[in-house]
Amino acid sequence: MIIDEKRKSGPRRASMEEYLSPQVRDIKPSGIRRFFDLAAGRKDIITLGVGEPDFVTPWHVREACVYALEMGKTQYTSNAGTPELREEIAHYLHRQYEVAYEPGNEVLVTVGGSEAIDLALRALIAPGDEILVPEPCYISYSPITALSGGVPVGVETFAKDQFKLTAESLRAAITPKSKVLILCYPSNPTGGIMTREEWLPIAKVVEEHDLIVISDEIYAELTYGAKHVSFAAMPGMRDRTILVSGFSKAFAMTGWRIGYACGHPELIAAMLKIHQYTVMCASNMAQVAALEALRNGMEEKDRMVESYNQRRRIVVKGFREIGLDCHEPQGAFYAFPSIAGLGMTSEEFATGLLHDQKVAAVPGDVFGLGGEGHLRCSYATSVSLITEAIERIGAYVRKLKGE
To answer: Among candidates 83, 380, 90, 65, which has minimal Cα distance to 250?
Structure first.
């Protein structure tokens, strides 16, 4: 055996961390998960932290999966997903949001919406490309961008605008290196939405600056009062947009890990290449369940949305009554109250609230620009727990004010 003397005698790295990729080493752990892990397993803590429905996946959806297992559907599917599910996704998007896709080459079934976002960014980013991210936003966009060699550029949104993206703020953030705009409406963490009239000037900026858009519409079914408007349905935006969504939020299927991406066939083909070399395909049984959810799960979905709407009203009213400003969320299942007048950072407030009142919520600063001074509270939990949590938060606020 030939021994590489240079390798044998070379200096050893001081720690295992030095073997890591710099991009991975520099990424901070999830601020959401940190607070969730602190609360995990403790029955005395009310958690408003993790964005997960408290409903169980509807019975008939679970039954479809069980039957698929009994019938031996345990093999790989097509890399892109089963033809039946892709066709149903296309029908659903056309029926609900008036955007049309060809199931054969414009729809890709993924392992959750998160994989779809990762695939889209990896397919699009060349080193140094700037990715525009309206903030506060879902915490994964910037780390995934960095892992792909891109540069995340935050575009701040504000409570006075109901956390809506404006054409002026977007245009001000664009440079010659800007390539991709990531959108997430309805918004996590703010609950903000965008109307057609508000999308049109954004679409104009996108076209003027030749941007590609990744539109994360995972909360599309969770809107209150106004129907969701897909950015892909805007004039000229269909082929510039990769529409990402999934089944986790609307159908209470977080653990099934089923999502999808739709877009121009050349973009979907590029994403498919990465997908087939990394995960091969989404779970066969989970795809069966997703198909059942789309075909027969709309009534249960509507009942869940109505329940969220009831909780939304309770949360907003509750925060305002205890003296915390809170814009009214129009989508998703999050409230984003302001704690800016209490003389504490979001991190300090959330930490103190957890230890003093046993309520876990997420400090707003983890969501990027504009998040500091806010707290993200998920109302995807029972009315009784929401009511108790508001009372505890109120007690903590009064204590801080010396009342």
So the answer is: 380
Shortest CA distance to 315 belongs to which of 43, 45, 46, 58? Answer: 46
Dist. CA 270–CA 181, nearest whole Å:
18
pLDDT per residue rounded down to tens, the chain (403 residues): 454 554 555 667 778 888 888 888 887 776 666 666 666 667 789 999 778 999 999 999 999 999 999 999 999 999 999 999 999 999 999 999 999 999 999 999 999 999 999 999 999 999 999 999 999 999 999 999 999 999 999 999 999 999 999 999 999 999 999 999 999 999 999 999 999 999 999 999 999 999 999 999 999 999 998 999 999 999 999 999 999 999 999 999 999 999 999 999 999 999 999 999 999 999 999 999 999 999 999 999 999 999 999 999 999 999 999 999 999 999 999 999 999 999 999 999 999 999 999 999 999 999 999 999 999 999 999 999 999 999 999 999 999 998 7
The token pair at 354 is 């957890």
Token pair recorded at residue 1? 């055996």
DSSP 331: B
Residues 109/282, Cβ–Cβ less than 8 Å? yes
Q: State the pTM of this model.
A: 0.93
Helices 284-296 and 83-97 pack at an angle, to 10 degrees, of: 30
